[in-house]
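Encode chain A's predicted structure.
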Amino acid sequence: MQAMTGRRWAMLGVLVLGFVGAGVTGACEGGDAEPVAPGVTPPDTPPGCTATSEKPCMRYRIPLVGNPNMDLALRAKYIAAFGTPCYMSEANTFDCFYEKWQAACADAVKIGEVSGNAPYDEGYTCQPVGNGDYTLQIGPDVANKITINYQAAPRQTPLIEINGVPTEVSGPYRKLPEPQVLGPGIDFYKKTVDKNGNLVDQHDLIIQVNRDAHGGKVHSDLAGFMFPCEKGKPKLCPEPDVLGDPPGYFPATPQVHHVVPMKDKRCCPWGTNSNKNAAVISQKLNDHFTNNDPPVEEVLKLNNAEAYTP
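Encoded structure for chain A:
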């Protein structure tokens, strides 16, 4: 899943953007995916994200006021004001983390107003502490300041809310043996065992299982899913049933897709390479999904699909 409209900046003094070959996942905030020649598997790491995951994923956290963990109305205010940096973690905590300190500081000055308390004074600039943190003066007294902490960002929850219920993605490959290496931010090219006991790439096993189940043809697990025929245009087109047909038609190339994207919008590890999180779809639909939260329609369709036989 790659889709960006401009290069994202690298994190201050920390990251260098790059790519690694293989699989397909979610893109980070930014621009259109690089064109890839027919027959070439697109890069697994989306444009704008690092080729290798940071351990831990260091980001800038602004100090929210109130208790958005429990106060849903307050949480909604922060999301409306600050957008994608704000999220619920898998530990059920709500915070706003930023890839760039300048963006964190720009939003930090709005915390007072957004929280419903006294607005912070504007006109002050963030000052480095020297350990990666920044302080921002928010009142006439120089001692009246807040700290933007540079710290490890917790993983965004992989559970997708469906009718108010946090739901695990459990797609049609859920019965396949899990790969030897499993975790957030990992591609589908780790080794696993096929039905004959042979070590194979997880990606190849998923494609082969799909092909075997459909008489030698690879079928999309999201056949009929409606999405824009062209980016930015309102007309919708259905995901095809049979993929790679006709041969060489690049938009219909079958790809193994992370339902919960491999990287979140902060370019931190998110979706895992569990077979539960895998779906075979077309290149074109994979490009459409980017690194946004999976649509409820997608999760429901995959969770309700009959499981493939290993």
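The CA atoms of residues 128 and 134 lie 4 Å apart.
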